């Protein structure tokens, strides 16, 4: 859970790296958002505006409070499907905040020269997030 001043704990950072890897579908783990070290850029971009900073911190807090993660030893100990389910639960509970967070993650990822071009839309079968009603 983020500290009182809004800074992230080491546990938050580990959790977020795993979450980034679930949010952007990749075939090659070498090009996963976490493996490319994008968390710092995501955090920096999220903190630029009050609304995105608040959304970012609410999603981080929700990740840290996930009961399934606590039961199995943390978000990193969860299976990929459990991580996806946890993120879908957060998307459902905090749709506005999650949408802002997901938008930042996608922007940072697809603006990076090491990644593929940004899809025209995110309606593909490999996309799980951003489809909540």
Molecular structure report:
With 133 residues, the chain is an all-alpha fold. It has one domain. Helix content is 56%, strand content 0%. The radius of gyration is 14 Å and the shape is globular.
Task: Identify the notable features of this structure and list them briefly.
133 residues; 6 helices; 56% helix
Radius of gyration: 14 Å
Our estimate of the beta-strand percent is under 5%
Q: How many independent structural domains?
A: 1
Q: Major beta sheet, specifics?
A: none
Low-pLDDT segments, ≥5 res? none
Measured between the Cα atoms of the first and last residue, the distance is: 27 Å
- Overall average residue pLDDT: 85
The run of helices and strands is HHHHHH
- CA-based shape: globular
Number of strands: 0
Q: How many distinct helices?
A: 6
Strand-pairing-aware structural class: mainly alpha
Helical content class: 55-70%
Q: How are the SSEs ordered, and which strands pair?
A:
Elements: H1 10-23, H2 39-46, H3 50-65, H4 67-72, H5 80-93, H6 95-111
Quick structural summary:
The chain is an all-alpha fold and 133 residues long. The protein has six helices and no strands.
